[in-house]
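Usage example:
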Amino acid sequence: MMIKKILLILTLGFTSLGANAIEIDEIIERANLASFYVGDNGRSDARMIIVDNDGNKQMRQFVIHRQDVEEGGDQNFLVVFSRPSDVRGTVFLVHKKAMVDDDRWLYLPALDLEKRISASDNRTSFVGSDFYYEDVSGRHPSLDEHELIEETEDHYVVKSMPKDKSAVEFAHYQIRIDKQSFLPMLIEYIDKAGTIYRRVEVIEVQTIQGYPTVMKSKVSNLKTKGHTLLQFRKPVYDTVVNDSLFTTRSLRNPPK
Amino acid sequence: MILLLVLGQAIAQEDNESSGDEWNSDDWDGVESKWQQSGFIELSYGSRTQTDSLYNHQQTLGELRWHQEYEYQHKSFDFNWSHDVWFDDVLSQWQIDLRELNVKFSVFDNTDFQIGRQISTWGSGDLLFINDLFPKDWVSFFAGRDDNYLKAPADALRFTSYFRVFNVDLVVTPSAEPDRFINGERFSLFFPLFATVLGGSEVVNPKNPSQTELALRLFKNIKGHEVALYAYRGIEKSPIGINNNGDAFFPKKNAFGASYQAAIGKGIFNVEVGYHQAKEENNGSDPFIPNSQWRLLLGYNQELFKKLNWGLQYYLEHVTNHTTMLNNSLSPEFEAEQNRHVITNRFTYQAMQDKLTWSLFMFYSPTDHDSYWRPSVNYRRNDRWQYTIGGNIFSGQEEHTFFGQFENASNIYVRFRYQF
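Running the assembly step on the lines above writes:
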């Protein structure tokens, strides 16, 4: 009887260990897809409100179009800015490559200049906000080692360590992933001293065409005490996309 | 008065915005409206760093400028209007510049038309142009106006057609639009025939050209490898010819070229070549019309580290029939060398969450022993206010070289902008 019990516990233990080992990759994979690969394509109005530590505000308003070339892999993005006035009509086209550097173009309307731009550090400010490029377009899961450190009733808590420490400013980050939607609801970035210095949090989720969709999120820079709010409006998924949408033609003639 | 009204309106708008909670949920500016408008008011001042005795005043920039853009988006077309109105303290007069007045529409699903006053740009160079023969405003560029003013508008028809194999881009300018070239009014320039620098007034005042300009580009992006072929039929964009009456004029010119651009390593590499054919000069023997030229450009740019970008270019101008030209020249001592080499470097650094931009662009010619430095610092305080300070510094060992002739034009400037 006793032996049976021990065996049962051992078996269960091993099973759950095994399940965890598979599960962490699956959790991360599903979180990545839920955050950045919803449907085959998507379009949304978006705006950022950038607030510094004195409460001064800036705004960025744009329309973002996305198309998945490969689920979990290559993607195309087109970002068309409408506000503020010095970036009105500026268009940003990215052919994101999962394994190599992206191809990027920027269109500056006042000069009618279609500018090929080199890939930049992905952990720098996106259009002057507290968001990084990587927060907007995704960080490839294979860049970090992931470990499931806690499982609550509603969330998985994952600790992620960078494989290349010199490429990033964090020592590790911790993600709180919703068990139902697999959306990362809270990401906290921790420096070498063990201090949380940056926080990305989801404020509001709505279900759009059956997909749980982040409608409001917030990045806080705990060092500068600044933060940025990102808000989406009228998102749509799985539309019929014209082949030319993600080509340089859209730089001069963005979709209406 | 108009300026004050606009400014008042804009400030009123700003006040409205500061109310409400952080998400300001109803304020999705202009999304529903078919009309969009934006603009700015700018006050700027610039002065020579040394004295040009040809001018009574050493001020090179002094203006209160109102820039305004309107756009109307219809389902089947786009209408664009933009203009600048400013008081120019250097010329002591009001100026107006209509920069855009055009309609854009698409037909057959693969062709885009743009008809009317517009600004056009193509080619791979950074402030060096081989196959982009659209009008440029060198006066604004040298005086320290916003970089956007380097490009001048033209009344033109542009159509761009997209095909599977390659794309076609054609710009027709019925009545040629020359550059806004250095003419002596604001900056002096070198005259080989007089062996000196002249200025202080509009010393170059040619008759406007009337030829039609045709500019054609065939281009394709093959998985990030961008290739293009170019052809141009029109004029020299500056009046560098002298006719039988002794007046400056715009000689006829053709140009043919090609470019290639792709990502290599961490950066972007580009190469561009062009043949500029002087139509009114066959063998280099006419001293009043510059010879044909080959032009070559090699460039590379990349992010050196976080927010610091660096761009390097090598540029060559090769004059054909150079010996014949020297033999026939009235001032051979002032003629450019057969091969004029130029190297440019650009550094751009952004700090304070992109609010502060440090920039330095340098042209240096080892053959002419001259250089042109363009440092600037821009502080974008918020979505409304921007401050810029910068300079245009020319230096050369001789006053007849391309940049050397502008040594007395060297200036520093400051700009304050309120945008709405």
